[in-house]
Amino acid sequence: MQGEVQMSWDIILEKPLPGTNVDLFDESSLEAFDLTAVQNCLRVICPHITETRPLWMLYEERSFEMEFDLAEDFIMLHVHILEPTGEQQFLILLGEICKKLQCRAFDTGGDYLF
Predict the structure, then answer these.
(1) What is the mean pLDDT of the chain?
(2) What is the pLDDT of residues 48-59, one digit of tens each?
(3) Which residues does the chain have with pLDDT short of 70?
(4) How many CA atoms lie within 13 A of 13 on its CB side?
(5) CB 47: neighbour CB atoms within 10 A?
(6) Across-strand partners of 107?
(7) Distance (Å, rounded) from C-alpha 63 to C-alpha 92?
(8) How many Å apart are CA 63 and CA 5, to the nearest integer?
(9) CA–CA separation, 36 vs 25, rounded Å?
(10) Cβ-based neighbour number of residue 2 at 10 Å
(11) DSSP 41-91
């Protein structure tokens, strides 16, 4: 980590199957991610992303950092906000990621962010 963590988040990226209740997170009703396509997409959106081990990627900015734990059923993000502006910058990037991957982001605290 580059700086002192001001806040941490665990966020799940998931794609509910058509016809499922989209108000609830249901691990049994998710569309699979194409992990090669996900990795390629993340490399475009986050140009300085690094693969720290198979299916685990790290993206660092001055104000925030996030780790991607990739799996076909859902993608786990571990986010660390390092500066006051980091939350806003992270949320902008998260919105772009969700749009490109056609998925939504679930804050494990209980709310959908996108």
Answers:
(1) 88
(2) 999 999 999 999
(3) 1-3, 19, 21-26, 114
(4) 28
(5) 8
(6) 11, 111
(7) 13
(8) 10
(9) 24
(10) 13
(11) HHHHHSTT-EEEETTEEEEE-SSEEEEEE--SS-EEEEEEE-STTHHHHHH
